[in-house]
Design a protein that fits this description.
Elements: E1 24-25, H1 28-36, E2 41-45, E3 62-66, E4 69-71, E5 74-80, H2 84-89, E6 95-108, E7 116-127, E8 129-130, H3 136-148, H4 167-171, E9 173-179, E10 182-188, H5 196-199, H6 202-207, E11 211-214, H7 235-238
Antiparallel strand pairs: 1-10, 2-3, 2-6, 4-5, 5-9, 6-7, 6-11, 7-10, 8-9
Amino acid sequence: MSEDAFQPTSSNAPNAVHRLKDRARYDEETVYGILDSGLVAHVAFSTPKDFDDPTAEDEWPTVIPMAYGRIDNEIYLHGHLASRLLKALSENGARACITVTHIDGLVLALTPFHNSMNYRSVVAFGHARLIPDSDSERKIAALTAVTNQPFRAASGDRWTDARPPSEVDYKSTRVVAVPIEMASAKVRAGPPKDEKKDTENEEVVGRYWTGVITTKHGFDKADPGPYNRAVEPPQYIKQLLL
């Protein structure tokens, strides 16, 4: 994988990290790794005002949490045909900004102003495009990626381990692809960082607890549904449980 695939073209590029630049990452391995281990993406979009109605006001910018999947350098989103987000992103040249974040710990310092979090995040930009029903191979591949995203770590294939979608399912679902044209990752790890005047003050360091409260990532248990008749969960589900 390329180590500088998403290197900003200038300091004004949308994906250029300006604050705490030492935490920035622009390589494919980091960006894809954060995306592949996520469950929810926050998708930002905006719709222009209705120019046929001169009294209409601009829409508010909107951010919506979405399930997603990735294949190569494209992120896929899906939903009902009536979805406002997907309708907006189906327009030719529609811009999207997609973020995924993992919280790995709470970082407690001597002063609240140095409290932080250990985290891994990605911000990706791209021009979305609709995958038409006529491109069934690509649409099915995208839907498979979205369905299997939560099970990537266990190499689970929930798409085939379920009733096949009907024609109604297929035609009532809209799928858009967002090529990752620009992206940046930002990563923080490690203990708190306080000012020297505080770390050398024995009264201060002796009074306040500092350190990292580590988070757990995973699922606790699999509760059978009311009409479940399967004897037990498949192995890829068992692998997700803590």
